[in-house]
Each structure stands twice: as structure tokens, then as C-alpha cells.
Amino acid sequence: MQLKVDNLTVLYDRAMVLNKVGLVVEEGEMVSLVGPNGAGKTTLLRAVAGLVKWEKESLKGTVGGKITLKGEVEFGRENISRLRAHEIVRRGLVLCPERGRPFREMNVRENLEVGAHLCTDKGAIEESLQKVFQLFPVLEKRQNQISGTISGGERTMLAIGRCLMAQAKFLLIDEPSVGLAPLVKEHLFDRIKDVHGMGITILLTEQDISFAFDLATRHYVLSQGQMMAQGSAEELLADEVVRQSYLGL
User: Fold this and answer.
1) What is d(CA 159, CA 189) in angstroms, rounded to the nearest whole number?
2) Which of 95, 144, 192, 213 has the smallest number of Cβ neighbours within 10 A?
């Protein structure tokens, strides 16, 4: 299903985090959102996933005051802007957070089963689990290992697997390659390609330009909360202003 973000604006008190940002990801695409640390990439994904409240006061001390969030998010032609996070997951739009963020005291299998908490069919849960193990054999080997003790790459794979257990149709993957060694990145690159090959649409954020450009077919460039450019890797690299000012190349 198509994801459309229109005029998305996020302020923490008076600090502008996102300023009238828009993007479109068509069903079946793999699209990247690139930009430097602090550009607003994670905030955008969290807002789409329902984890940033719309026009609500934050808890005292969490971000220092009021969060103001405006704009529209459509998924499959439905306005999901004010749906709760679990309602968005039910529609098949699932966020895979940076560094995986597993429940560290639980083992790998238990973490995966948490992803299927909205499913009541035990047979379907087991079938999904076996599909995840087929995609990520290392998770099957580690299934009884406490999640807080697995490697960074395995945590990212675990997070993606947990999203698949939720019957994801569209994955929002936040900084999948962050902190990973080159060989681990290469392996993860192939697994994300495999997930996309399963018919799952993907929007991922990345600081590693080469990783994003090799993996996705279309790209958005975000800087200081504003969308500065979009296009294929070839188009963006051919633009000298984009290369130097926003891609750091």
C-alpha cells in the first residue's frame, strides 16, 4: 500500500525538528531517507508509526515541554495521522527501530513472539517464526540466547524479524547499518533485499550514503528538518550542490 506524508511539521517547544516535510512511497518500492545525524529522520519515522503524539503535551521532563505535530499521513489511502501505534501496526505498517532495541532480558525467540502479540492463531505464529528462521538462520541458532548478549547485527536482524512476526506489509527501518562492521553490513544488505523480495515495501533511513544508494532505488535527502532533494542515486550525485551541501561528498 502507498505511504504518503504531507506537510509534516514537528516542534519540540519552539525548536523546529521537521518543517513541512512530504514524501511518497509506492507499494513495492524500497526508498531511502538520507541525511546527517540530527536531520529529523528518526522523528519522521516515529511520527508515521504513531509514536509521536499529535498536538499533545509531552510528559514533564521528557523533551522539556510541548510537542506540536501537524500535517497528514496516509497509508493505503486512509488517513492514519491520529491513530494509535498499535492500530497502525494492525494495518501492516511497522517500525524497526535503530539498533533493534530488543527486550534485553528476554531470549531471542521470546522477542520474536512479542512481535506477534496481535495474532491469536498459534499455528500462524509458528509458521511466521519458521519463515523468520529461514530468512535469518542465525536467529534460530540464538533462539534461546538472552537478547542483551547478541551482537549489533543480530539485534538488527532480530528487530526486522520481530516486525515480520507482526505481519508487516510496509517496514520503516531506522538506521539499519549504524555501528556495524563492513562485513556485517554486507550480510544485512542481502537480508534486507530478501525481505523486499518477499513483497514488503520499505522506507529506511541511513547516514551511510553508499549503503542507502546501493540498497534503495529512490532517495529523499533531509537536512535540518527540511526535504532538500529527491531522486535516483545518479540524479542526486550529478547535482553538485546536493553532493557537497547535503551528502558530504
Assistant:
1) 15
2) 144
Identity of the residue numbered 72: E
Nearest 10 degrees: Cα torsion 142, 143, 146, 151? 40
What is the residue whose three cell numbers read 506477534?
A: 116
3-state secondary structure of 230: strand
User: Distance between CA atoms of 93 and 141, rounded to whole angstroms?
Assistant: 28
CA–CA separation, 114 and 110 (whole Å): 6
Contact 192, 176 (CB under 8 A): yes
CA distance 117 to 121: 10
Residue type (1 letter), 32: S
pTM of the model: 0.90
Domains and CATH numbers, the chain: 3-245 (3.40.50.300)
Q: How many CA atoms lie within 13 A of 222 on its CB side?
A: 26
Q: Are the C-beta atoms of 98 and 175 separated by less than 8 Å?
A: yes
pLDDT of amino acid 65: 60
SS3 21: strand
What span, in angstroms and rounded, lies between the C-alpha atoms of 242 and 222? 11
Look at residue 170 and tell me whether its pLDDT is greater than 90: yes
d(CA 165, CA 7): 32
